[in-house]
Amino acid sequence: MDLTRIIKDHELWFDSMGEMGKKADLRGMNLENTEFKNAKLIEADLMGGNFSCSDFSGADLRGANLQDANLSNAVFCGTNLEEVDLMWSNSKDADFSGANLNGSYLNGADLRGAKGLLLEQVVVALMDEETLLPDYLNDQLA
Fold first, then answer.
1. Is the residue at 47 inside a domain?
2. Which CATH number fits the domain that encloses residue 69?
């Protein structure tokens, strides 16, 4: 699998409004410890994949599907996660420093141990009673 080609084809797909390229379909793939720095994966499908320890720093993932994904210890520094579906994801110990979570779906997500996650980031996301936040944020929300 040529991940660089998949990302380039996806960018072309998005920029051409589906006329060229191909939407990235990384559902269920094991891409642990993979470099996605500055990737443009808007509306990509990464559902159920293993992205543990992967680096998404500076990436644009707006509207992407990361539902049920393993994102433990992943890095999302400065990543655009606006309206991303993170429902039921394992995001334990991930780094969300400077990430945009506006409108993201965090229902049932496990964010315990997350680093760099601020109250300002989670209050603009959608959560439910099954969302597991780091202890320091639970204290601020209480």
1. yes
2. 2.160.20.80
Within a domain: 131: yes
* Three-point CA angle 36, 38, 42, nearest 5°: 85
Q: Is residue 95 assigned to a domain?
A: yes
**The pLDDT of residue 25 is above 90:** yes
CA-to-CA distance for 128 and 62, rounded, in angstroms? 21
The CA distance from 135 to 142, in Å, is: 11
Give all strands (DSSP E) within the chain, no chain letters: none
The domain of 99 spans: 25-142
Q: In this structure, are residues 22 and 13 in contact, taking their beta carbons and an 8 Å threshold?
A: yes
Query: Could you tell me the pTM of the whole model?
Result: 0.94
Q: For residues 10 and 132, give the distance between their C-alpha atoms in angstroms, rounded to a whole number.
A: 32
Question: Taking 90 as the threshold, does the pLDDT of residue 102 lie above it?
Answer: yes
